[in-house]
Amino acid sequence: MIFEFIKAYIRLHGVSPSYEVIAKEMGLRSKSNIHRIVHRLCTDGYLEVKPHKFHSIKVVDKSVKAMLSL
């Protein structure tokens, strides 16, 4: 759900959401939960995040990686 929210937010606003915005939209109080989930999505290859930068979440296009692995 968070991955889909991030993709939609980027499409609508042109920038990635902050952890605070994600937490608020998902009905969570803690940004640390969002941090953990976002970094898990990075580990799984769905997102990239530049540390210590605001609005630095990028969605990874897995279709390009899949084509390169053929």
Structural notes for this entry:
- The protein has 70 residues and is mainly alpha-helical.
- It has a single domain (2-68), classed as Arc Repressor Mutant, subunit A (Orthogonal Bundle).
- Helix content is 57%, strand content 9%.
- The chain has 4 helices and 2 strands; from the N terminus they run H-H-H-E-E-H.
- It has helices spanning 2-13, 19-26, 31-43, 62-68; strands at residues 47-49, 57-59.
- It has a two-stranded antiparallel sheet.
- Helix 2 (19-26) packs across helix 3.
- The longest helix has 13 residues, at 31-43.
- The protein is globular, with a radius of gyration of 12 Å.
User: What is the arithmetic mean of pLDDT?
Assistant: 87
Judging by the overall fold, what is the CATH architecture? Answer: Orthogonal Bundle
Largest sheet: 2 strands, antiparallel
Relative helix content: 55-70%
Structural class: mainly alpha
CATH class: Mainly Alpha
Termini distance? 29 Å
Quick one: how many beta strands? 2
| Gyration radius from CA atoms, angstroms | 12 Å
As for the number of domains, it is 1
Strand fraction band?
5-15%
CATH level-four homologous superfamily name: Winged helix-like DNA-binding domain superfamily/Winged helix DNA-binding domain
CATH topology: Arc Repressor Mutant, subunit A
The succession of helices and strands, N to C, reads HHHEEH
Secondary structure tally, helices: 4
